[in-house]
Write a structure and sequence with these properties.
Structural class: alpha+beta
Strand content: 25-35%
Bound molecules: nickel (II) ion
Largest sheet: 5 strands, antiparallel
Distance between the termini: 47 Å
Strand order of the largest sheet: 1-2-3-6-7
Mean pLDDT: 96
Order of helices and strands: HEEEEEEEHEH
Number of helices: 3
Length: 165
């Protein structure tokens, strides 16, 4: 296992469509382990293979129980509701934006051995699944936002909101 370098916005690898995984081998297991270790080290909620320069449909995401879910060849099979909330990305460090997402999604994916399974998520977990799956099609959340906020701008806005309440 190793901590990999997370590529940032502007690197063309983030705008490419990833290839499906067809071999459930040691290389895939290593990729998943590296994604998990890199995500833990970065203290994030999700990380997709293209973010470490690998164009494969593989991602890991943290669920409601704070467990890391390994998703290989994932697809959203159901979604409902709507939420509007703040989102960030390890490939767009220090920036945040408001993005509308479904409030609940069901995702079908394969595990590291190739077995299909389904996971459901609501709220932040649903947001996380949507965000990570978009990475696999070469999209970043910044495409959905009207404005990006820096950490300082966000702190200022939160402080103002608290003062108003
Ligand atoms: Ni991201």
């Amino acid at each position: 296992m190793s901590i990999r370098t997370i590529v940032t916005e502007g690197d063309p690898v983030l705008n490419k469509r990833c290839h499906p995984v067809t071999k459930f081998d040691e290389k895939l297991a290593d990729l998943l382990d590296d994604l998990k270790e890199t995500l833990t080290n970065a203290n994030g909620l999700g990380l997709a293979a293209p973010q470490i320069g690998i164009l494969r449909r593989v991602t890991v995401a943290v669920n409601e129980k704070n467990e890391m879910v390994e998703l290989v060849n994932p697809e959203i099979v159901e979604s409902d509701g709507e939420q509007d909330g703040l989102e960030g990305c390890l490939s767009v460090p220090g920036m945040w934006g408001f993005v509308k997402r479904p409030n609940h999604v069901k995702v079908k994916a394969q595990d590291r051995s190739g077995n299909w399974f389904e996971v459901e998520g609501t709220g932040l977990t649903a947001r996380c699944y949507c965000h990570e799956l978009e990475h696999l099609d070469g999209h970043l959340y910044v495409e959905h936002v009207k404005k990006l906020y820096t950490n300082d701008e966000l702190d200022e806005m939160m402080a103002k909101q608290e003062a108003d309440e």
